[in-house]
Amino acid sequence: EADINPYLPAGNVALSAFLSLPAADLDGPFSLEATIGSEGIPARGRFSGEVSIKPPGRRTVRGSFASNFHLQPDGKNVALPDFRMVAEGDGLMASIDADLEKVRFTGQVQIHKLSLPRWFGFGRALPPGLQQPMDGLIGEFDLFADVHGAEAWNLRGAVGPLAVSGYVGVKDFSAPEVVVDLDLDRANLDLIFPFLAKAGKYVPDPRKPEFDHSVLAPYPSLSPRVPDQNSPGIEVGYDVKVRVTKPRVHDVDAGTLEVRVFPVRAAGVEKTRVSFDRVSVLKGIVSGTLDIDEQAIIMRYDVDGAELGLLPENLDNEVRIAGKVT
Q1: Distance (Å, rounded) from C-alpha 276 to C-alpha 305?
Q2: pLDDT in tens, 179-201
Q3: CB 149 within 8 A of CB 170
Q4: Is-contact 75 85, C-beta < 8 A?
Q5: Burial environment of residue 307 by CB neighbours within 10 A (0 to 12, 13 to 18, 19 or more)
Q6: Residue 66: which residues within 8 A CB-CB, separation 6 or more?
Q7: Where are the alpha helices (DSSP H) in the chain?
Q8: In this structure, are residues 258 and 316 in contact, taking their beta carbons and an 8 Å threshold?
């Protein structure tokens, strides 16, 4: 449904509409005001709108957006110099150039606050210790998106109190996998995984964020199955890689740590695997995996030459542990 104002001066357009997409449970008002460009002069204007999404069985999710725009005379390129979007307390601002002919978007995005577990299914699949810092991301990045995928390059921001840089993207929408590749200077793994802390030291379990609405990617009411009903359907995967230059674990400093977080399925149960390889700690080398689900954490380690005498437990006990372990 749309209304067009016929009483504006020549060359001006005003449009108000109410858009509805029942298949996606989405609707909301939209308005546009523009000055039509003449030969060689771009059209200029502003649009704004509100969005209401009602996921099945959950409350309505609401957001709003607005931007000025400059449409080039060829009608193929439009600039959005100050696009803003706010939804459920999260918000961003962007300067975007859109190639309408090639359906390609490039620009710079500033994130005022973004919760990955709020909007993305892969975020809620992560362990609480990783969900918590990803519940309030801030930063900026360079955007590239087209019909095939979307990528955030040169990411610079903060995960909780930690400065972070790197890349986030979904390269192929037809087989979606969220790829995260981040670099951090410091991180205390005991705060993320309290079971790694030294014996006798209390570290509170990380708070798992709670939300009273469904994720929007993948969206629950849109079937992920392809026409062949025998197909297992499209699943949104994730592959998180984090490099920490100065990690701390079990109350001791360690060498550069490279961690990979990804889903695995064992005996029909979906688990989150955290793997690391050849980390220098206690003057030895340690590799291993953590398999985490809602019921248990299974830890496997390969240790080569670790000095047990350097364990922090030795500082608090009369009985000391010594020797090397391989």
Answers
A1: 17
A2: 999 999 999 999 888 888 888 88
A3: yes
A4: no
A5: middle
A6: 46, 47, 48, 49, 83, 84
A7: 116-119, 121-125, 128-131, 189-192
A8: no
